[in-house]
Amino acid sequence: MRSWIGFGVAGNVAGHLEQAGEASDFVGVEVSDPSGPKGLFPFYVPGAAGHFLSVDPVSSDTLCFPGEGMSLQIEPEIGLWCRIEYASEKVVRLHPTHFGAHNDCTIRRPDAEKISEKKNWGRCSKGVADMRIAIDRFEPGGIMDSFRLVSYLERDGELHAYGLDTPLVGYTYFHQRLLDWLVMQMNEQVDQGPLESISTWLRRAGHPNETLISIGATRYTPFGESHYLLPGDRAIVVGYDQREIDEPGVRDALATRGLGRPDLPALKLDGASVLIQTVTEAVPTE
Prior knowledge:
alpha+beta, 5 helices, eight-stranded mixed sheet, five-stranded mixed sheet, 286 residues, Fumarylacetoacetate hydrolase, domain 2, single chain
C-alpha cells in the first residue's frame, strides 16, 4: 500500500482490556454501546511530519524492544486491509479486501494519556504478516468465518501459548456491524480520555485511500497475561483456517520448523497467515 493509514480497535473482545490492565482508562468515555468496542486509535499517520505517528512501525519479522524497564506484550489480532471511500472529506464506506495475522504490540504504560502513545515507538514496533488472504465477502458465510486466531511466545526454544485460540466470529463487532461502527468512529469520534479525533488524523494524512485496521486483541492465556517480552524472544501470531488445520497442527508445524533457528525460511501453512517476529534491542538497518 502506497498511501495508507493505520488504526486499531480497542475492546472488541470481552475481557481483554481487563486482562491488560487498561479497562480503567475508559472510565468516563462515552460510548454508544457499553458492550461494544471502546474506541478507535491511530498507530501510523503518513504525512504527520514531526509527530511520532509519522514513522511506519510495521515489520513482518522484527520487533524492536523499546528499552530497559518497559513492559511489552503481544496483542494477537487480525489486520483488515480496506479501501476508504470518501464524500466531501467524510468516510462513507470501507471496502475490506484482505486480512492477515497482526501483532498490535503494546507498551503497558499507565502514565500514557492516549492509546497511541503505547503503540508506536518507532520502526519495527508493530507486526503484520507478509501473507495476506483475499476476502471474498465480509459477511456471514464469507471466508473469514472459518478462521481462528492463536498466538505463542517462543523463549529459549520452548513454545508457550500466549493468546487463547479464538474464532474470528467471536469478535464482539464483526462483518457489517464492525464496518458501520468504524465509519461512525472515523467521522464522529472526538478527543476524550485515551481517544483522539480520527477525522483530524485522516485530514492530516491527506485522506489516504487505504487503511490497515487491527480489529481487536484476543484474551490472553495465564502465561500471556503474566509474561512480558524480552530481547531474544519470538512473538508468533497465526490466523488459520480450521477447515485446513487445527491448533495442535499449527503448534506441530512451528516445532517442526525448528524453533530458535533464524536461518530457516519463514513458516508457510496452507490456509494460514503466519507472523513470526524476533524481539531485538536494535533497530535493523535499511
